[in-house]
Write a structure and sequence with these properties.
Elements (H helix, E strand, L loop, with lengths): L14 H4 L13 H12 L10 E7 L5 H7 L2 H7 L4 E8 L1 E2 L8 E2 L3 H18 L3 E5 L4 H7 L6 E10 L9 H4 L10 H4 L8
Antiparallel strand pairs: 1-2, 2-6, 3-4, 5-6
Helix pairs in contact: 2-5, 3-6
The structure holds flavin mononucleotide.
The site of flavin mononucleotide (FMN) has 10 residues, from strand 5.
Length: about 200
């Protein structure tokens, strides 16, 4: 298994640096109940007006939904995600009925909120002993068809969830990439007051 040598510059809970996105999965299976336990964490994400615009479409490896979703991934992602235990598509509803209104309107925060839900899912998965790996590399039309995406919904990511395996399980070209990545220093992404003119 790959060592994770990440060091935080400020004290934070261990889960934030311990979670990362491997591609090597064992052939473990996940039960629907276990998967729902991970999605439960995502359910509790905050969202504008508490509209909860995220939608999760999931398939367990080998079930009827699996192949259409796997097949819509880019070939590179298929090459490793095919061993995952579950694939979860993160989508969101773009419209909602705001509190006090009777007509639906555009929800300006649906993408932000769906991203928060994905983050919660990833952290819960890690804490429950599962690895997760998000992918934007998929054919949007094919994925919309695979999950029968309703109108007024957009796709954001596919997430492979599985038990992390040894890097040697991967094709050789991918083995060297099986490491926990670093981050930019906070000084490059946090601005006190305002960006410099
Ligand atoms: C929205 C999103 C899309 C991503 N798309 C892909 C992808 O298509 N294929 C892939 O191998 N990794 C993909 N990644 C994984 C990122 O490369 C990875 O999260 C990033 O390098 C940070 O590494 P870490 O998750 O291990 O901390 C994606 C991640 C996110 C959040």
């Amino acid at each position: 298994m790959t060592a994770n040598t990440r060091q935080a510059d400020h004290p934070i809970a261990e889960v934030f640096t311990a979670r990362w996105s491997p591609r090597a999965f064992t052939d473990a299976t996940i039960s629907e109940q276990e998967l729902l336990g991970l999605l439960e964490a995502a359910r509790w994400a905050p969202s504008a007006f508490n509209a909860q615009p995220w939608r999760f479409i999931y398939a367990l490896r080998g079930d009827a939904g699996w192949q259409p979703i796997l097949g819509a991934l880019m070939p590179f992602n298929q090459s490793w995600a095919e061993k995952a235990s579950a694939l979860v598509i993160i989508a969101s509803a773009t419209r909602f009925t705001a509190p006090g209104k009777t007509e639906a309107s555009d929800n300006g925060s649906h993408t932000f909120d769906a991203g928060t839900a994905w983050g919660y899912l990833a952290l819960q998965a890690h804490m429950a002993g599962w690895a997760s790996h998000a992918m934007a590399g998929f054919d949007r039309q094919a994925m919309a068809k695979a999950v029968n995406l309703p109108e007024d919904h957009v796709l954001h990511a596919a997430v492979a969830i599985g038990k992390q395996g040894d890097a040697s399980l991967l094709p050789e070209a991918l083995q060297a990439r099986e490491v926990a990545s670093p981050r930019l220093p906070l000084s490059e992404t946090a601005v006190h007051g305002a960006f410099k003119a």
